[in-house]
Amino acid sequence: MLQGLLLGLSNGAVCIGNCAPVILPYMLSGGKTVQSNFIDLFIFLAGRFSGYLVFAALAFFTRKIIFRDPVLGGRFMAVSAALLGAALIFYNLWQSKRKCEWQRKGNLLKNRFIGNLRCYPWVLGLITGINICPPFLLVFTEAINSNSLGKSISFLSAFFVGTSVFFIPFPFIGSLAQNDKIKTLGEATLYLTGGYYLVKGIISLGSVG
Amino acid sequence: MEETTNILKLKKIIRACLLSLPMGLLTLVMITRLDFSDMDLNLAKFFVYILVNSLFFLMIYTGKVDRYRSILFVTATVAFSVSFIWNLFLLRGNFMVLTDEDIASCVVPFCHIGIPQTLVTAVFKQEFSFPGTFSGFMYTIPIMFTIWLSVTLVLGRGWCSWVCFYGGWEDGCSRILKKPAFKFAPGKLLLLPFAVLLAAVLLSAATLSPQYCWWLCPFKSVSEFPEPSSLVRIIQMLIMIILFIGLVIVMPLLTKRRMQCALLCPFGAMQSLTNKISPFELRIDRQKCINCGQCIRGCPVFALDETALEKGAPALTCLKCGKCVDHCRQNAIQYHIKGTKVNLNKGFAKGVFLYVAGIFLAAMGGGFMIDALYKIILAIKSLVVGCLN
After folding, report:
1. Nearest CA to A16 among A169, A196, A143?
2. Residue B168's closest CA among B355, B356, B368, B24?
3. Where does residue B331 fall: left (phi above 0), alpha (psi -120 to 50 degrees), or beta otherwise?
4. pLDDT digits (tens, 9 = 90+) for B162-174
5. Which residues on A lie below 8 Å from B206 (Cβ)?
6. CA distance linking residue B368 with residue B378, whole number of Å
């Protein structure tokens, strides 16, 4: 466990670097208080952890890391990047206060299928967790080489705790969005990062075939 | 009466000559480097020296900053592209195409627009996210960082109207028509460069690659661009061409504003923040201002509006180009040095600013102009010799 924690702490900077394009604009576009941002962060991290658990278990049982397969891994990464991009753009459209036709449709969807946006950080965390996290490959390797699933999960949990420490500043930065201009800035950034992942995912999917 | 006017005019000329003299001496050293061995190079240096100093003299003599700055700025920008592309051809054997090999060998010239993307990644991840070089090639990373830091500390976003070697394209296009074809109200779009900055910095840190440079930079069209060898590269190239034509040529032409600087450039957004540390700023004298709106209509990056007039200072995005100073018939807008009293010695603040900014423009732009002119002279000479033989 200590090894996992230390590995998490030493890789934290890389982890926030990979998650920041998702979580920072998300928080800036929300215009919420520090407390609400901490709740969102907790849900986001829970989503990320769920993604890790699922794929670590998969790696343990199949003894194979899907991401290392050039074709299958490539397709998987491309689809998850496109999904992440679409999720960010979709969230932003919902959040938007503009009374356009698109939003009206969005609200209908929201009421019918989702009901509450509270789970959205979990979805984002899940897709981010399975998508763009290079240090996580280390953990998968550990899961493959381990003889016990319990031991693997405890290693993974410790790694997760170690990296999560680095996310603490985000809710504070996110609270700046109580200023209208910064909130608009966050929304625009969310569109840009969402667009980037969506386009990149679609193009990668086309390239992988 | 006529005699008095002539005497006054003569006095004004002598004063402008005396004030321009130190600049003449400084640029003599900077431009010639006191090396007169190559005759063709001397010719290029002579033309550039005369151009720089006559425009500086006119700035002092007429008091019009932007009118003469823009001539030098646009010329320097065009000269940069000529010089840069020519040098690329000499070094690599192709004009503007950046091959995968060049990228892999990290011999991509580094430009200032890459600074925010690389700076944040270097600080937080101890990695450098630009395939540039630290020595042995043109436009190395340390040189660009040093130039950027020294100019930024003094001019802040003044970089964008005095030093940037791309800005002249828009500046030039925005001056072609006498009146704008249509009025453009940017509203919340003015926040877009800051969003592009944030997204570019975050994505570059995540991918360890300068994502703005790959995807959005329109100025690859006048410098170099990656070889369109894959679907991604072709899409990136299309985006580059569309943004260049749209934001650098067509929109500035139709609106008489620098649209790329105002609505896209992440480097400009970062420079806006550095305006806080620059000792120079522009101030509006509320007592002289008659709210005619000339300055608001003239500002190339929408840094002036009614709120700014009320506050007595332009917004953070001010380029310090001096267009509003030229446009104001009441002489209500003036350069100001922070920490000094407003309305005290206005000519002094303007003079100091013109010297500092002028030296940077002469140093950067002068170098490009000499190099471009020298290459053109050599090309003409070899063409003439070829024809004669």
Report:
1. A169
2. B368
3. left
4. 999 999 999 999 9
5. 17-18, 20-21, 132
6. 15
For residue B160, give the DSSP letter: H
Per-residue pLDDT tens over the stretch B240-262: 999 999 999 999 999 999 999 99
Q: What would the mean pLDDT of B109-136 be, rounded to a whole number?
A: 83
> Domain residues of chain B, as ranges?
97-278, 280-346
Give me the residue from B195, B199, B231 closest to A203, CB to CB: B231
The three state secondary structure string of chain A is CHHHHHHHHHHHHHHHHHHHHHHHHHHHHHCCCHHHHHHHHHHHHHHHHHHHHHHHHHHHHHCCCHHHCHHHHHHHHHHHHHHHHHHHHHHHHHHCCCCCHHHHHHHHHHHHHHCCHHHHHHHHHHHHHCCCCCHHHHHHHHHHHCCCHHHHHHHHHHHHHHHHHHHCHHHHHHHHHHCHHHHHHHHHHHHHHHHHHHHHHHHHHHHHC
CATH of domain B280-346: 3.30.70.20
The verdict on A112 touching B (C-beta cutoff 8 Å) is no
Q: What is the CA radius of gyration of chain A?
A: 18
Please list, residue by residue across A144-159, b when 16 or more beta carbons sit within 10 angstroms of its beta carbon and e when fewer do.
Answer: eebeeeeebbebbbbb
Nearest by CB to residue A193, choosing from B203, B231, B232, is B203
pTM for this prediction: 0.90
Mean model confidence pLDDT for chain A: 79
Taking only the tens place, the pLDDT of each residue in A21-59 is: 999 999 998 878 899 899 999 999 998 888 878 777 777
* Interchain pair A24, B198: CB under 8 A: yes
C-alpha separations of B311 from A142, A179, B283, B306, B370 in Å: 61, 20, 9, 9, 43
Task: List chain B residues with CB under 8 Å of A206.
Answer: 231
- By CA distance, what is A208's nearest residue in B? B231
Is pLDDT of A99 > 50? no
The backbone torsions φ and ψ at residue B148, rounded to the nearest 5 degrees and listed phi first, read: -60, -45
CA distance B231 to B191: 31
Distance CA B10, CA B13 (A): 5
The pLDDT of residue B133 is above 50? yes
- Host H or E run for residue B343: none
Structure-derived torsion over alpha carbons of residues A148, A152, A158, A160, reported in degrees to the nearest 10: -160
Cα nearest neighbour of B207 on chain A: A18
ipTM of the complex: 0.87
Interface of B with A (CB under 8 A): 121, 124-125, 188, 191-192, 194-196, 198-199, 202-203, 205-206, 211, 215, 230-232, 235
